[in-house]
Design a protein that fits this description.
Length: 124
């Protein structure tokens, strides 16, 4: 079992920045990759970014390309999502998720473990 705990959400003005953290514990040796997803009220959950646990390969959704950066600190078992130039449309609950298998990185169904989420609100 892998436990994930997100932190770092909050209220920020448009154009501002936030850094989200995802602390992993438990069976992290089995983790292949960690992803960030988000869900806004009334909308479906969407993929934001992903990083592989060992190689550090990254993938981003178009919505965050150039503004968001995903990184990891293996020593701390923590994955970060640095979000810059935030827009009101980035407002959502952000979840981190871990997968133990190689697969389509944008599909939430491929992720086995999920955190509880952290709220990000961007005011205009």
């Amino acid at each position: 079992q892998v436990q994930l705990v997100e932190s770092g959400g909050g209220l920020v003005q448009a154009g501002g920045s936030l850094r989200l953290s995802c602390a992993a514990s438990g069976g992290t040796i089995s983790v292949y990759a960690v992803g960030w997803f988000r869900q806004a009220p009334g909308k479906e959950r969407e993929f934001v970014a992903r990083i592989t646990w060992t190689g550090g390969w990254t993938n981003y959704a178009d919505s965050g390309q150039g503004r968001f950066t995903i990184s990891r600190d293996n020593a701390k078992n923590t994955v970060y999502l640095q979000m810059n130039s935030l827009k009101p449309e980035d407002t959502a609950v952000y979840y981190c998720a871990a997968t133990t298998v190689i697969g389509p990185y944008g599909l939430g169904s491929k992720y086995d473990y999920w955190g509880q989420g952290t709220q990000v609100t961007v005011s205009s």
